[in-house]
Amino acid sequence: NGKLDGTWDEIPTETVTETETATVTETETNIVSFEKSMRVDTTKITGDNIGSHWVAWTWNDGEEGEWRQIEKFGHVATHNNVTFVNYDTETPEWDNIIAQTKDFTVQNGKLLTLLNEKDSQGRYLGEWEQEPTVTETVTETETETETETTVVAGKKATLSADEYTKGDEDWYAYTWDGKGNESWIKGANGGTFTGLYNKVIFARVEKDKEAAWANVWNQTEDQTTVDGGTFTITSWDGGKDGNMTGTWDEIPTETVTETETVTETVTETATEDNETTYTFFYLPSAAQEDAKNTYKLNYCGTDDNWHQYTMTATDQKINGVTVYGIEVKTADTDAKELQYQVYDGNAWVSENKFDAVKLADYDNKIVGADGKFVEQGETETVTETVTEIVTETVTETVTETNDPNKPIDLPPDLDETDPTPSATGSEIDLDPDLDDEYYVAGSFNNWTATKAMTVSDGKYTDTINLDAGTYTFKITNGTDWYGNNGTIADTTGDNAWVFATNEGNCTLTATGGAYTFTFDADTKKVTVTYVPEESESESESQPVDTDTVIYLDASKVTKNDEIFYAYTWSEGQPEKWLVSTETTKEGYLKYKSSMFGEYVIFVRCNKSADNPASWSAKWNQTDNLTIPTDGKNLYTISDWGGEKMPGDWSTYAG
Question: Measured between alpha carbons, how far is 229 from 165 in angstroms, rounded to an integer?
Answer without folding.
Answer: 20
